[in-house]
Amino acid sequence: MSSRIDGDKSGQVPSRVRRILRGPQPESVPGLVGTAVMIVGLLDIAAGVFPRFRHSRIHAVTEVLPGSLGPFAAALSISAGVLLLLLAHGLKRHKRRAWRAAVVLLPAGAAAQFTYRHSVIGVVIAAVLLALLLRHQSEFKALPDPRSRWKALANFVLMSAGSIGLGLVIVNVHPGKVVGNPGLYEQIKHVVYGLFGFEGPVDYAGRVSWTVGYSLGALGMLTALTTIYLAFRPEHPAARLTEDDEAKLRELLAKHGGRDSLGHFALRRDKAVVFSPSGKAAVTYRVVSGVMLASGDPIGDVEAWPGAIERFMEEAKAHSWTPAVMGCSETGGEVWTRETGLDALELGDEAIVDVKDFSLSGRAMRNVRQMVKRIERNGYTTKVRRVSELTGTELEQVRGAAEAWRGTDTERGFSMALGRVGDPGDGDCFIATAHRVEEGDTSPFGDLKAIQHFVPWGKDGMSLELMRRDRGADPGMNELLIVASLEAAPALGIEKVSLNFAMFRSALARGEKIGAGPVLRMWRNLLVFLSRWFQIESLYKFNAKFRPRWEPRFVVFRTTRDLPRIGFAAMQAEGFVTLALPRLFASRRRPKPVRTCAHHHMTPVPKHPEREAQAA
């Protein structure tokens, strides 16, 4: 179903890179400490919430945890448990700040135990754990992740939901002490009041009311303090290419840009870059949810790739990020796996058309030929030019149309999209436009009906970056512009054109052939089913219309268990999973297009019911 490139297992991986890759092992101190902290945190919460738990058979275990059995100690135990749970993941990832927090919290917890419980055993165990952390402090050197104000909002939402849920448990674990029979509404009201430090409508006999009040107040305080900290801490800026970095990348692309059709996408300005020691190669990346996500092959001289890859791996280790590469070529995958010991899986195929071999004649091109002729008879004309040849008015119309015809609030794309049109530095890009003059047309974009944007692929190639069209245009605009671009290519000095990326193309192609096995057929049927919501099968068939040659693209990863995390990070990078405020104050609703996508996206684009691919 997918081919695999294995890392070099014969000892050819450079020793320094092997040390970089080795990283944390399952039995390492940070992993054990993180797991222990998580367990202790759960026990702390249980000890503070459930009164019977403190007198159960594991009472001897909870005796060494921070806190006493009084109301204040219950709140302190719950607070410590929540903080320890938040801290555990950072310790597992070797984070320096998590280590510093643990070093501070252990003596504080020991002091609380001795003050409220006179627990010498707790002090001794805290001292042993503190000594263990100090002894292995060299293993906790990972730098912080890029920061975002959105983390404060996410923390507030998650902590509030968790506090309300845990608060309901706290309110209901003392059934014999509750006065009256309060309903769910009164219980929720009591929890919300308690989180803000006020007394709610539920009353208890004895000192239970104080215990519940302290516990709810502690949860509310933790929610407020962690949110305030995340909101006002110094923010690390998101990844951005500096002008100097962009200039160096353009120099490398001018010399070696013809090797990879995705090379120009390294110029996205929401990426960071690491260069080889010689400066002759570079790897661009973005960090998403702890995944250091590179895209395409390294830029520059192939002989200098190992140096750039080594710098990439060193950066990943320094921050304890998960390294991954999306959409590299077969050559790139071989270099990555050989130099690092990582593995690679085939993700799909890129459709490439050789201009000299393209023709509309023949039975195989009959559908495309008839569609193009029909659209031309309806009065549509096309233009294919470099961006630098557009007038200022035309460029503004193209930019406005690209924005208005986009079907989502956020611009999608990362691996195979540039994310901009008509930038002053992108004059060597190509624009294909479809036009039709209509009486009474009041469109702000004039007679413009569809656009396609191509980026350079070396000196004799171009790579399709996006396709957008007006909702009212006839079906077949994409076919029309692709054909127009291929026919205009010789005059522009273009010999090869990279079209769309077809995810799982080989599985779809092999699964529909006679003799395909049951597993392959089942996999193909699943992909066809998913195509109801994502352009998987339709995009493959759309590409196949132009009789391209297929070039495989790979995802490079460290271990199989990292693949779900890498997949989720890739969806975030591509814009399919976003944290964005609702557009409550939008001045006007943007008209929804029939098809809007950057077709070079590694992640399949959600399809519209009126797909041009089906209309063909």
Automatic annotation (TrEMBL):
Coiled-coil boundaries: none
GO cellular component: plasma membrane
Start and end residues of each stretch annotated as Disordered: 592-616
Topology of the protein relative to the lipid bilayer: Multi-pass membrane protein
Transmembrane annotation, as ranges: 29-50, 70-91, 120-138, 150-171, 212-232
GO molecular function: aminoacyltransferase activity
A Pfam family it matches: tRNA-synt_2_TM
Assigned keywords, A-Z: Cell membrane, Membrane, Transmembrane, Transmembrane helix
Domain Phosphatidylglycerol lysyltransferase C-terminal: 250-556
One of the GO biological process terms: phospholipid homeostasis
InterPro entries: LPG_synthase_C, PG_lysyltransferase, tRNA-synt_2_TM
Domain Lysyl-tRNA synthetase N-terminal transmembrane region span(s) in chain numbering: 28-229
Subcellular location: Cell membrane
Top-rank lineage group of the source organism: Bacteria
Biased composition regions of type Basic residues, renumbered to the chain: 592-602
Start-end of Basic and acidic residues biased regions: 607-616
PANTHER family recorded: PHOSPHATIDYLGLYCEROL LYSYLTRANSFERASE
Protein name: DUF2156 domain-containing protein
Biological source species: Streptomyces subrutilus
